[in-house]
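Ticket reopened. Same input as before:
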Amino acid sequence: MVAKTDAQSEQDDNVKETPAAWEPKIIGFLCNWCTYAGADLAGSSRLKYPPNIRVVRVPCSGRINPQLILKAFERGFDGVLVSGCHPGDCHYSKGNYYARRRIMLLGRMLEYMGIERERFHFDWISAAEGQKFAEVVARFTEQVRKVGPFKGVALRQPVQDAGSKESTESP
Amino acid sequence: MKEELELREKARDLLEKGDVICVIGYGAGSTPFKTTPVFIEKAEDVDKLVWNPACVNNLAVYLRDACSKGRTAVVVKPCDAKSVVELIREKQIKREDVVVIAVRCPGMLNEDALKGFDTTDIKSVEWRDNKIVVKTSDGETEIPAQDALLNKCLTCDLTKSPIVDIQIGEPFERQPVKSEYADLEEIEKLTPEERRAYWARQFARCIRCYACRAVCPGCYCKECFVEKPCQLWVMKATDTESNWFFHVTRAMHTAGRCIACGECERACPMGLPLMKLNAKLRKEVAEMFREEPGRDPEALPTLGKFDMKNDPDPCGE
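Engineering reply: fixed in the latest deploy. New output:
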C-alpha cells in the first residue's frame, strides 16, 4: 500500500466512479486511553497499516455519540471504525460498557438502514495492542474495499427494488 | 355508552373534590370518527368527555406541562399508560402528580377502514364485542376488528394498564392478531442496497415539519439537536441526507424508551413509515437487552445501564 497525501485522497473522492483509482475513506473514533495509545504504539513500533483511516480522538468510547457515526455515513465515509478499552479496563471504569450497548444497537440499526455490515466495525484495542491496531485497520480497510464505494444514504442513483410494493409510498 | 358516563362521573368527582386541577381526555372532534384532546378544568365541563373508537391520540404527551402546574388526571388506553410509566421512569413527572384513568379499550379505529363510506354521512362509530359498528343513514355496517383497527391494536397484548389509579370498565381481554415485528421482515429480507434505496425514497418525502417530534411523549428535550444553533447536525434545507439523519437519530434517541404508541407515524403528513424504525429498535432492544419499556416505573433506562456479563459483545459476534 502506498501512503497518500490528503490532496490525493480528496481527488479520489471525485473519481469514486472509477474503482481503480478509488481508495476507501475511513474514519476511526478512538478512545484516548487505550486505542489511541495503541495506534500511537503501532506508529512508534514502525508497524505498517493502511493510511485510509482518519483518526478522531475521543476521551472515552462512552463519549461516542451515535450521531457522530450517523453523521460520518451521512457525509459519505466508506467505513467507520470505533474502538476503546477492553471491558473492565475503562479509564472511567464503565464508559465502555455504556458504549457497548449503544454501539451494538446502532450497528443493528445501520444494517437495517442498508449500510453494509462490513462498513462498520467495533472492536476493543488496548494501549499495549499496537500490533492488533495495525491488523484491525488493515483487515477493516480491505473489508471496506471489497464492498466498494459508499454511494451515500440518499442513494442518488435510482435502484430497482421490491419496496415499490409498499402501501406507504406517496401516491 | 357505559364507560363514557362512568368516565364523566369520575372526572366530575376528581374536579369537585379538588383532587386534580385538570382532566386531560378526549372530546368530540369535527366528525363522529375523530376526537380532539380536551382539558377539563371545571366540573360542569365534564360532559365534553367522550370515549369511542376514535380516541387514538396518546394524551401522555401533555403531561409534562400539565403536571408542572398541578395534579392532573389523564385518560389513557393501556398502551398510552406505558408512556406515563416512561415519563415517571425518566423523572419527567412525579407519580403523585398524575391520576391515571384507564378505560376499557377494545382497540382504536383505523380511519382507512372508512374509505368505502360516504364520510359525511357517518352518524357514529362504536364498538360491539370485537367489531366496529359504523352507523350511517342507510343503517349499520359491522367491520371485523382485523380490518377496522390500527396496526398497533392488532399487535397489542396488553389487557391491563401497567399503571392505573381509576379503572373504567372491565379490562378488555386481548389476543394479538399478529406480531409487532411482522412488518419488518419485508425490509430485512432486502439487500443492503435495496434497503438504502427504500429509506432514501421514504426520507426524500419528509418535509421536516417535526410533527413526529411534537406528538412523541418521549421527545421532550427543551432544545432538540436539530435546533442547536452552533452545531450543524442537520441542514435547514430538507435534503434527503439531513432528513435521513434526523429520523435515524430521533429513532436512536427513543431507543429503549419508545412504547410504540404509533403517534409519530399517525401525525406524519407525508405518510412516512416511521414505526418501522421504532419497531426495529424495539425488537433489537428486546432481543439484545431483554427489555421492554413502559412496564416498570422504577427501572433504569435501557441505555443508561449495562449488564457486564450478558450484554452482547462486538468481539463475540
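The radius of gyration of chain A is 17 Å. Strands of chain A lie at 26-31, 53-58, 79-84, 120-124. Please confirm and we'll close it.
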